[in-house]
Amino acid sequence: METSRATTRVLVVDDEESQRTALASMLALWGYAVETAADGQEALDRLAATPVHVIVTDMMMPRMDGRELLKRLKEQGGGPPAIVQTAFGNLESAVAAIHDLGAFWFLEKPVQSQALRMLIERAAAQERLAEHAERLERQLSYHGVLGEMTGASPRMQEVFALIQQVAPSRAAVLVTGESGTGKELAARAIHTLSPRRASPFVAINCAALPDTLIESELFGHEKGAFTGALERRAGCFELAQNGTVLLDEIGDMPLGTQAKLLRVLEDQRVRRLGGKNEIQLDVRVIASTNAPLDAAMRDGKFREDLFYRLNVFPIPLPALRERKEDIPALLSALLADINRKHGTKVTEADAEVLSRLTAYAWPGNVRELRNVIERAVILAAEGPIKAAHLPPNFGGQAFAVAAPMGMSMSGTAAGIAMEGPAGITGAAHELRVLVGSTIEQAERGLIELTLEHTKNNRTRAADILGISQKTLFNKLREYGTQDAG
């Protein structure tokens, strides 16, 4: 939350009363709350009683000078950012205060009011950012919460640590994980913890846009650049200037657009479609994908040079089934949010519901959990969630999928006829997929059953499955099939 000038408190430290009073009056006119002290010792006393956001201190003072004040604050673990005033001839001492004692900056006397005003604004912004980061770190330490992400499990603690490490930098980040694991929430947490948090966060879903529109959405266009371009429009990179852009589902970006994106990332310049001039950018880029890009690169669908440009700092998100110990905490957070949204008063889930939630494999991850809980909250309205509020046959039903080339695929919760990946069974030309199985497990089961159906004829199996022989080979190699060659 941004802090207004009225709630930004500045401590003025100067032994000359006339200088101290004049400076305090000027800061008050600018809208700041002001405290004053006649020397370093009085300043320490003031700081012990009243927290401040910025210190403006003279260097030469009796009893305790500005340098000693900064030294004491550093020994105590650091204080608010300090702007040092220094007389002509004492520049060396002021620079040493910045280098050795962590002062924010210095100004020569007589102080130029506009320069002082700018420095105070910047120092206050830095202090607010530090306070915000400290609050988030405290939430993380005590409650397993980072921004809108929840999880005290070891896997999520690793994710939170990576986010905190990379956030202050300018490095590109690639967030990977299954659909519904919270990739956009991770990107927003990185932005919120970064120095760019006061600037825009702009997200674009590369999978949701047709090829004809994605370049316009990314780079913008001039009026008349193409049919239907009735006015100039800024792209997401321009809109995110000084902030962060999230390229969601980057693996679905067309190859031609990938080449143009790579140039934008390398040059930090963008040109609108139909435009003549390039626009200088200062944008932090985060990309996300729900499918590993290795296979796409092998198939020639994703550029390796773009991958290495984006994958400077990878952050893999675990599936919910890999961190089920987080479900009670996620449930509490979701209940609070959903109750606010619908005006309901649901307090908790009973023991049977919690047991079923924990036993379920959650192929849709946290997004699916939220949908299940939201439905249950609407049905319950108040009190605890009970088993009757869950979807019918929750956690036990299976589903049917259309099978290719005359093969039948039916869903049932019983009847294992052939051993396969967990939750996947087959018999003759029938594949049974239990809800709770992963996409990868279902895919492997279908490929293996199709190969059995074609008597291991891989050319025909690839045709039936609608994939290339190269893709089929790579899938078999991933599964560790002995005869992958």
Descriptive tags:
485 residues, Rossmann fold, Helicase, Ruva Protein, domain 3, five-stranded parallel beta sheet, 18 helices
Largest sheet: 5 strands, parallel
CATH fold call of the largest domain? Rossmann fold
Number of strands: 22
Average pLDDT, to the nearest integer? Answer: 82
Percent strand equals 15-25%
| Radius of gyration from CA coordinates | 30 Å
Number of self-contained structural domains: 4
Class per helix and strand makeup = alpha/beta
CATH superfamily of the largest domain: P-loop containing nucleotide triphosphate hydrolases
The CATH architecture category of the largest domain equals: 3-Layer(aba) Sandwich
For the terminal residues, how far apart are their CA atoms?
58 Å
Helix content: 40-55%
CATH class assignment of the largest domain: Alpha Beta
What does the model show?
Strands 2-1-3-4-5 form a 5-stranded parallel sheet, sandwiched between helices. A 5-stranded parallel sheet has the order 9-12-15-8-16. Strands 19, 20, 21 and 22 form a 4-stranded mixed sheet that branches. It contains 18 helices and 22 strands. By secondary structure, it is an alpha/beta fold. The protein has helices at 17-29, 40-49, 66-75, 91-101, 113-143, 154-166, 183-192, 211-219, 236-239, 255-267, 293-298, 304-310, 327-342, 351-359, 365-380, 439-453, 458-465, 469-479, and strands at 9-13, 33-37, 54-58, 82-86, 105-108, 145-146, 149-150, 173-176, 201-205, 220-221, 233-234, 244-248, 269-270, 279-280, 284-289, 313-316, 345-349, 382-385, 398-399, 408-409, 424-427, 430-434. It has 4 domains: 5-125, Rossmann fold (3-Layer(aba) Sandwich), CATH 3.40.50.2300; 144-316, Rossmann fold; 320-389, Orthogonal Bundle (Helicase, Ruva Protein, domain 3); 398-479, Arc Repressor Mutant, subunit A (Orthogonal Bundle), CATH 1.10.10. Helices cover 44% and strands 17% of the residues. α13 (327-342) crosses α15 (365-380) and α16 (439-453) crosses α17. The two termini are 58 Å apart.
